[in-house]
Design a protein that fits this description.
homodimer, about 50% helix, 4-stranded antiparallel β-sheet, DNA-binding, 9 helices, alpha+beta, Jelly Rolls
Chain lengths: ~190, ~190
DNA sequence: CGCGCGATTGAGTAATTTCAAATCTAGTGG
DNA sequence: CCACTAGATTTGAAATTACTCAATCGCGCG
């Protein structure tokens, strides 16, 4: 369907959404469409007020270093959230870019509105807190993997962990997520 | 002082602690002392029910890989929290070890008791949620740094970010946190 | 003094990157 | 249907970075 209903379905998985909460969320959540290549957040922009929930498509967040190389921080597909969470949560300028790698339909929410939801409906704060805890685990695992695994093993882990990404992300997106060059990834793939 | 009062001072920084909350916390929080080398959590143990708040001393969490090499995931000093947050939040067996690298005084809290505090005093859940968001930013920054910086730059970033760690952690602890060998760190240090 | 642990240094080796060229692929127009 | 093109991927060879293994150094402590 790719509409607001999908978002409420997602929410229903973790909490029960009252009619009042539903009304408030409907009024603050905006559905947006983007095309492959569109930039939702740009490194250096003054502040990061938005976070996005993916209804359809694929996005990624990435940083461009001083040598103009891109490094993928996160991918997002259906039912994932994405933003520059460094800028978003530390209330600073954008440290990351967010762009579409496939045409997308997303729900755009801003921090202040979400805060309002938390205040009026505390169960949403609990839901968010549990999400954060799960994400926290994922980030810790990524760090642990990066510390102890070889490039090849990180790749093998990636494709078992996120099997859907191989077909939608390009070679160099995945390489830059794994912290290697696209040439190295190509060589790893060729003798697996 | 290194007693419970320090913990309440820490909490007072982010919220106002009612007398009732204070009573509940006093009843569930246990002060524990550990010596350098003591293991608080051991990789593989059945579950991770505890998290620790540091009153004094230095601890670290780390993983031992299949070649018996240690990789430091996190350090903790006064006013930091530490545990195996992978096991703790995903309710699984311990993926990490936690040990003392200096004699420690910590407050031990368990998940179920903390949940009770959240339920009875929702402002603690908000406090925790904000902490998680800050930690989330730190982990994202660590990943970004790992992706885009050289070993030398990661080291330079580490000593500006955590200047107190250089004197309390050993060479190979820091090296294993940065994802390099102790020999490489030694060489980096010698021509800085 | 001598032991033990941690840090440093050196030399050879392995893994990965860099730069450049070649190949593949999907889409476009003749 | 085929040729062409632009973008993406692969391959090769040299250079770089970091690692391994081994030996040595330095220091605190019994």
């Amino acid at each position: 369907m790719n509409n607001m209903e999908d978002f409420f379905n997602y929410l229903s998985n973790g909490l029960s959404v009252s009619d009042e909460a539903r009304d408030l969320i409907s009024s603050i959540a905006k559905i947006k469409r983007f095309q492959k290549g569109d930039l939702l957040i740009e490194q250096g922009q003054e502040n990061v007020l938005q976070t996005y929930f993916v209804l359809n498509g694929v996005l990624r967040s990435f940083v461009i270093d001083k040598n103009d190389k891109e490094h993928t921080v996160q991918f997002a597909i259906k039912n994932w959230w994405i933003s520059d969470y460094i800028g978003y949560y530390s209330n600073s300028e954008a440290m990351l870019n967010v762009d579409c790698i496939k045409d997308c339909i997303v729900i755009k929410l801003n921090r202040a509105s979400i805060q309002e939801v938390f205040t009026r409906f505390p169960e949403f704060e609990t839901f968010h807190r549990k999400n954060l805890e799960r994400t926290f685990v994922r980030l810790n695992k990524r760090i642990v993997n990066h510390l102890q695994l070889s490039a090849r093993d990180r790749y093998l882990n990636f494709i078992t962990e996120y099997p859907e990404m191989e077909s939608v992300a390009m070679n160099y997106h995945i390489a830059s997520y794994l912290g290697i060059t696209q040439q190295s990834l190509s060589r790893i793939r060729s003798n697996t």
